[in-house]
Design goal:
Number of domains: 1
Distance between the termini: 23 Å
Order of helices and strands: EHHEEEEEEEEEEEEEEEEEE
Radius of gyration: 16 Å
CATH superfamily: Hexapeptide repeat proteins
Number of helices: 2
Largest sheet: 7 strands, mixed
Helix content: 10-25%
CATH architecture: 3 Solenoid
Shape: globular
């Protein structure tokens, strides 16, 4: 799924992204001020961040951080635990019945590896989380990764490659531990 997009810094495109980052971080801060018993306000604030509705049965425990927001799509019956960060400018598609534990990072952006190019470009690639996935505490999913339906990402894993459906992955970098 490696559909990387390069954004050159200092361009109109990068300036527009930065303007959206200002809005998204402000909206994220508002979500993070809410208490768990303010479910309606949490949902409304999250939908304002995304610029679209989330599926029924959505549940998020603040605090939460996103630096763009408009790229995130959330299915039905999705749970997002506290202290999660969804960052970058490429799409993040979260399927139905997904559980995302606390401190999970979904990261769609990065920089070129070459030192001379790092400050001049941002790279971005989408993340897709299939239906009925569970992502464990403090896991990180990196740009361009697809997590297959029914998979489990173990706590603390760093997912650098696609995860096959109905498998358990763990480790740094994450590898398939077993089929489910």
């Amino acid at each position: 799924m490696d559909e990387r997009h390069w954004i050159t810094t200092g361009t109109p495109e990068s300036r527009a992204l930065f303007e959206r980052v200002k809005v998204a971080t402000r909206l994220s801060a508002r979500i993070s001020e809410l208490c768990l018993d303010e479910a309606v306000a949490i949902r409304q604030s999250f939908e304002a961040l995304l610029g679209k509705r989330v599926g029924e049965g959505f549940n998020l425990i603040p605090p939460f951080y996103a630096d763009y927001g408009l790229n995130i799509t959330v299915g039905r019956t999705v749970f997002i635990g506290p202290n999660c960060a969804f960052t970058g400018h490429a799409p993040i598609d979260i399927g139905d019945d997904v559980m995302i534990a606390h401190k999970v990072n979904l990261v769609t952006a990065g920089h070129p590896v070459e030192p001379g190019r790092r400050r001049d470009h941002i790279t971005a690639a989408p993340i897709e989380i299939g239906a009925n996935v569970w992502i464990g505490a403090a896991a990180t999913v990196l740009p361009g990764v697809r997590v297959g339906e029914g998979a489990v990402v173990a706590a603390g894993a760093v997912v650098t490659r696609d995860v096959p459906p109905a498998t358990l992955v763990a480790g740094v970098p994450a590898i398939v531990v077993r089929e489910l």
